[in-house]
Amino acid sequence: MKTTTIQKQAGFTLIELIMVIVILGVLSAFALPRFADLGGEARVSSIQAAAGAVRSAANIAHAQWLADGSPAVSGSPTVSLEGVTINIVGNGYPEGTTAATGITSAAQLSSADYTLAAAAGVVTVTLGTCSFTYTETSGAVDTTGITPAGC
Length: 151
Known about the structure:
Strand 6 (about 130-135) and strand 7 (about 140) form a beta hairpin. The protein contains three helices and seven strands; from the N terminus they run H-H-E-E-E-H-E-E-E-E. The strands form two sheets. Strands 4-5-6-7 form a four-stranded antiparallel sheet, covered by helices on one side. By secondary structure, it is of the alpha+beta class.
């Protein structure tokens, strides 16, 4: 008489594992875009980086102006930063009215990346709904328009 032995299954089969991985992949493809809005965070980071670049460029240009002996602002004092001539106004900070020779050029900001607007010595840099301003007379950068939830 022949006896048959029953073997117990010790793990999952390859087909079962592949099906679980496929189901998890499909669920993550639908769920991830709903829970993660990485575009807003990227815009906030980009505008914060631009504000930092403007702040640094203003301070570097001011330091160069001081190192050059603080030439009189009457006339048209300039400083040269990496071969780019930057016009200086006020207390030795880059001008904010002319994009080609002012703070946006010193900070290497492009109108292709940001919306740049200048009026009365104040430059406003906008990305989406976030913005910051630069004031040429003091070299100050106001970042109160950058809100983590708003861009």
